[in-house]
């Protein structure tokens, strides 16, 4: 988690910081083979050099990007969880619960789907 500490320290709201830290810690523990890193000033996780999932903090929500292919695969579940989305990211309002089972499925999908991927992003 130390790779994310500077990022977390810049989140002024204690509750938001704790929530982001909880999620990043959960991913680190649940998927220990993923590499935590900061890129484009945002926390993310990679596997064998390819992007798996990334996060950003906004005033009204925590956003995460699993890439378009993963988002499209889980769009119904994203909507059922009460999250909003764009083509490339999903927004979790700060007052909504984090659906850890959905995160787990999306991360597992990206790991398996990108197993043979040799680029950072899908082509």
UniProtKB/TrEMBL annotation:
Domain annotation YdhG-like: ranges: 16-111
SUPFAM superfamilies the record matches: YdhG-like
Which InterPro entries does the protein's record reference? YdhG-like
Q: What is this protein called?
A: Intracellular iron chaperone frataxin
């Amino acid at each position: 988690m130390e790779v994310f500490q500077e990022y977390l320290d810049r989140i002024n709201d204690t509750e938001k910081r704790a929530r982001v830290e909880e999620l990043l810690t959960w991913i680190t523990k649940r998927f220990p083979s993923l590499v935590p890193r900061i890129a484009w000033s945002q926390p993310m996780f990679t596997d064998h050099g390819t992007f798996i999932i990334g996060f950003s903090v906004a005033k009204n929500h925590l956003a995460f990007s699993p890439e378009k292919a993963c988002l499209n695969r889980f769009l119904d579940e994203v909507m059922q969880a009460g999250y909003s989305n764009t083509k490339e990211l999903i927004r979790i309002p700060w007052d909504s619960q984090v659906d850890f089972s959905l995160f787990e499925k999306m991360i597992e999908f990206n790991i398996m789907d990108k197993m043979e991927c040799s680029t950072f992003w899908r082509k």
